[in-house]
């Protein structure tokens, strides 16, 4: 916690001038226009010294940020005689509470002018060019604009578009964008930064803005079509039922041929049997079955051929190492995801069971980078283009993937299952802004304001949910027509029996005549 200094003065201006010159950047010094002995006497029942007995008010001054700049300003004015009438010393000293005496630490910064370092980064920080000047916008800019009104500070935005990101770790604290933050050249880094154990050693982070996970993004691999796709609309149950129906129909036709051979026709033929009354009933039943199944089959086959069925080729990072494929994979250079891969493989504080997998993935990226440096490019747009145009898997934070690939329904996003990621604003180590900004972000989370701001910059997914695929024809879908076939076969048997009886009676009458 930052120390607080309450300095007593007998009113000589040279002390004020000395503090003003030597403490321009300090917010933790307040000057009481009274000697220390008098301040103690204020808390006791001892009569005030004669030199102070005529003074009615005690004043406290501190350096405050005003429109022209830092100025000495009165922050406390106390009626001494009134305070002395209070019964206890604690009540008398309530006039000098920390929040009143050091208002710069209250959470408000009294118009202080801060330097923000901005680098374009997806929906968190971006800009439009208006009249030749950059106008910055984004989730973090909205958040800081809200904070400037709540905490009473002004700011200017310093452009770091053409600087490298750097790593911002204890091994490389001074490179690029993060180096300027760690060297305290600026007050706040605007681009959202992944919170990692090694970064916390050299920089401060405000309270978490987004929780997310590392995901894998790659093109949907289409399922190859072959001759067996013609059987896709039919399930095995209906194929078996159709085969059984054909066997039963063949058996019925054979019985009718034998029956006609013995009783009706000479020589018998299949055509004569099928065009008999019983044969016609059987043919009509079979024809009805074929019409219904053919209509259902043609409609389902059309749906199967018009829908590109996809499969999740990679469900977890291990699949990249174990499955046979032609994909390469990569990650943004010096990003939090790359550092997370490296930290997970070596940081004993993160007991991740997939250490060997992560090590093999990172070794694979290094090997691919020797042939194609773009797999570990610092430009996130280059990596996004590789995902869309090539067989390439990108490891990226989920919230970043929402912005990079918004509305692109040709890609698959799969959780990598590595580690949970947290991201927020980054500040120099020991910054006085860290605590009030964290409290503000926590309050925005609790009121739902941060969610509404996020919805503005991270629109909901427009891709429809992945369909389970066209519905295939099962036996229970058309079982009624098979029942009609059985009913028709039974009716044909009855007609054939009646036909036999009729022929026998006709034959017996002919013999008697």
Describe the structure.
The chain has 513 residues and is an alpha/beta fold. Among the domains are: 5-105, no CATH class; 227-307 and 478-512, no CATH class. Helices cover 45% and strands 19% of the residues. It contains 20 helices and 14 strands. The strands form 3 sheets. Strands 5, 8, 9, 10, 11, 12, 13 and 14 form an 8-stranded mixed sheet that branches. Helix 10 runs antiparallel to helix 12.
In short, what is this structure?
By secondary structure, the protein is α/β, with parallel strands linked by helices. Helices cover 45% and strands 19% of the residues.
Task: Provide the β-strand percentage band.
Answer: 15-25%
Q: Determine Rg (CA atoms, Å).
A: 42 Å
What share of the residues lie within helices?
40-55%
Mean residue pLDDT: 75
Number of beta strands: 14
Number of helices: 20
Largest sheet, strands/sense/barrel: 8 strands, mixed
Distance between the termini: 129 Å
Unreliable stretches: 46-54, 344-353, 508-513
Task: Record the SSE blueprint.
Blueprint: E1 5-8, H1 13-22, E2 29-32, H2 36-42, H3 50-53, E3 57-65, E4 70-79, H4 80-84, H5 89-92, H6 98-101, E5 112-118, E6 126-130, E7 133-137, H7 139-151, E8 153-159, H8 176-182, E9 188-194, H9 197-200, E10 203-205, E11 210-219, H10 236-263, H11 270-274, H12 277-306, H13 317-322, E12 328-331, H14 336-346, H15 355-371, H16 380-389, E13 392-397, H17 398-404, E14 411-428, H18 434-447, H19 449-457, H20 479-512
Parallel strand pairs: 1-2, 5-8, 5-9, 12-13
Antiparallel strand pairs: 2-3, 3-4, 6-7, 9-14, 10-14, 11-13, 11-14
